[in-house]
Every structure is written in C-alpha cells, then in structure tokens.
Amino acid sequence: MSRAADSRMSLPLDTAPSAQLAEPQMVRIPEGWFEMGCHSGRDDEKPVHRVWIDAFDFSAQQVTNAEYAVFLRATGHPAPSQWGDPAFHDPQQPVVAASWLDASAYCQWLSRSTGAVYRLPTEAEWERAARGGVECTLYTWGDAAPESQTGYAARWKDGPERVAQFSPNAYGLFNIGDNVHEWCADWYDAAYYAHSPERNPQGPPAGSRRASRGGSWRHHIKISRVAARSSIPPEFKYADYGFRIART
User: Fold this and answer.
1) Judging by DSSP bridges, how do beta strands 181-187 and 241-242 pair with one another?
2) Is the pLDDT of residue 242 over 60?
3) DSSP 3-state assignment of 2?
4) I need a surface site. Which of 36, 104, 166, 182 has the fewest CB within 10 A?
5) Is the pLDDT of residue 10 over 80?
6) Phi, psi (degrees; rounded to nearest 5) at 147
7) Cα–Cα distances in Å, from 40 out to 109, 138, 162, 207?
C-alpha cells in the first residue's frame, strides 16, 4: 500500500478514539562542544563559534496532531486554523499553524500534567541535536544536496508528511531539518553570534521575532541546512510551522 493511501485511511481527528496523555518519546542529546554556524551560510550564521551545550532530552519527532489534540481537549485552547483541513489532519502529521505562544502553552500544560519540565529548545540546542555529533557538515547526513535523499522529488506534495517515515539522524531524531519549521525558545537577532555566550546561549533578552529552525514542505528546497536560521513574530500562525519539545 502506498503512503498516500495509508494516509487517507487514517482516522480524522474528530472521529479518532479519545487519546490519553502520553509523554512523547524523548532521546538524550549528550553534553559537549560544537561549532555553531556556517562559514558559507548567510550573514546571520556567522561568525562560526564554539558553543557548549549541557545534556538535555529532545523529542524524537515533531509534536503530532494526535498529541496536540489531547492538549486541546484538556485545556480548551483554541485549535489551529488548519485543524479541520484534510491536507493537515492526519493524526500522525505534525501539528501546523500553532504560533510560538501556542507551542509555549503546550509545553506549560505538559509540564503541569507530568511533573517534568518541558519547553521549546534554544537555537543552540536545536543545532547541536540536528548535527548528530558530526561537525562542519551542511546537512544532518553530510554535504550532499537534498535532492540526493531517497524519494526527495516525490515527497511533500500537498502538506507535511506523517512523522518518522524515514530514517532518523545519528541522535535518533526524525524529520530534523524537514517537514515543518520548528519554533525555538529564543528571540531572534541576526547579529547575535558576534556576542553569544560560550555556554548554553539562550538568545537575546528581547526582540520582535522568535527564532525557528528547519525546512518545510512548502519551500522549493524542502530540507534546511543545519545552521540555517529563520524567524517570524511569535503570534504568527503558518501552515508550515510546527514544533518539537525539549525536556530539562
């Protein structure tokens, strides 16, 4: 059976059996130094600088519609604008059109519900995790162009894929760099790398845009370089924006 047919057979969210709260699958990202940024990238990816990141847990996949539905039912939080759209409502697709504020609310709810501390990752944590312990490569797999990846031309036709359909990176993270942009905790500053602290940088103290990482199904180039940065205002809600979560 094709992936497309499998997706059509999935129960829509409004008819799926009621789900219970289940903590997401998390993987351990080890502590360590890495070179953050890219010499050949955009100006906001420079200068390349040495960064230490403490160990943390990161969700193996982007937060799905099924997981987000539990949050909506438990809290009465408003659903994203694309919630009922057939192109986006498969339970195993990543939730889309959640703003940074919505993603933060999800983390706060999950923390209250479980007693653990869930949050959005910093940009530095995201890049450390995406690199999978390998330094100075453009992508999670190396330097080969995205078009070299299996099935690239046939993927992401009308929306994001169901999560975890292809192999993870070296740390066990699925879709890291593709499928949907992922919100980060930081305020965005194009010049931040020039004065970023060496250990566990948290981003600037204030700003007008929140940082995000990774590529999206809607772009011409579907898979982002690991050092590539992006940002939008925290209240914006786009159909190619989702998130994955970190745990302290």
Assistant:
1) parallel
2) yes
3) coil
4) 166
5) no
6) -65, -15
7) 40, 9, 32, 26
Residue 140 counted as domain residue:
yes
9 domain residue, yes or no: no
- Which range of residues forms the domain containing residue 38? 24-247
Q: How far is CA 216 from the centre of its chain?
A: 10
DSSP assignment letter at 64:
B
In whole angstroms, how far apart are CA 160 and each of 111, 121, 137, 174?
27, 21, 25, 13
Residue 188, C-beta contacts closer than 8 angstroms, at least 6 positions apart? 203, 204, 207, 209, 210, 211, 229, 231
DSSP bridge partners of 28: 57
| Measured distance CA(77)–CA(112) in Å, rounded | 15
The domain tally of the chain equals 1
Gyration radius of the chain's alpha carbons: 17
Kindly indicate the confidence band of residue 4, based on its pLDDT and cuts at 50, 70 and 90: very low
Q: CB of 219 within 8 A of CB of 228? A: no
Cα angle value 60/234/53 (rounded, 5°): 45
194, part of any domain = yes
- Distance, in Å, from the CA atom of 229 to the CA atom of 126, rounded to the nearest integer, reads 11
Question: Which residues lie below 8 Å from residue 6, measured CB to CB, with a gap of 6+?
Answer: none
**What pLDDT, in 10s, does the model give residues 197-210?**
999 999 999 999 99
For 120-168, the DSSP string reads: PPPHHHHHHHHHTT--S-SBTTBSS-GGGSTTGGGS-SSSPPPTT-S--
Residue 167 belongs to domain with CATH number? 3.90.1580.10
In a domain, 114, yes or no: yes
